[in-house]
Amino acid sequence: MSPTLRVLSYNVHRWGDDRAxxxxxVRACAPDVMLVQEAPTWWGTxxxxxxxxxxxxxxxxxxxxxxxxxxxxxxxxxxxxxxRIWRPFLRxxxxxxxxxxxxxxxxxxxxxxxxxxxLVVCHLGLHxxxxxxxxxxxxxxxxxFGTPYLLVGDLNEEPDGPxxxxxxxxxxxxxxxxxxxTFSSANPHKRIDGAHLSPGLAGRILAIxxxxxxxxxxxDHLPMLIELSS
Length: 230
Hints:
Shape: globular
CATH architecture: 4-Layer Sandwich
Strand content: 35-45%
Structural class: alpha+beta
Number of helices: 5
Helix content: 10-25%
CATH class: Alpha Beta
CATH superfamily: Endonuclease/exonuclease/phosphatase
Number of domains: 1
Radius of gyration: 16 Å
Oligomer: single chain
Distance between the termini: 11 Å
Order of helices and strands: EHEHEEEEEEEHEHEEEHE
């Protein structure tokens, strides 16, 4: 039987909703690696992230901006790459001007049997044109690993947008095409979270077994659980 790796991509809404429900969701998914968007930040950032990981039965490895990598016992992330992503500080929101927090992406290599691959997580911004510049920076980081890779994240855009088209142009496979909506958790009606595979890597989306009540309470996004195989 071929070895597999369970990877959970999840926007955890700053660990600010129902923490007990969130822990139940993650534990039900039983990931080997968790790629987090909107990890807790501000005061005591690393302490909060380690505490959050502990509630999942996992360990905090690395982060950039509000993206983080957590691993289960016995899983090793090699050569973590923490990349700051340029994004416009200001963006237009209706008739107002709003600010954006700095962007980032984080990734690392893992071994699946005798096969080496990279896992990368990002959270693209709300500025429409800015997102495209951010993605190019993220893709450069993905290529720098020199291995097949899985790219996940909150893309803040639906599949008919330019970000998804650019990912297809890059030759990546959209794993979530048949997985359903990811936002909001209480009333799913948009697919704005992605999981994309580069050529040479096989994977599929797995069903989430957590309860609807826990999923709605845990975060404003739904998680994506990916099984990778060599």
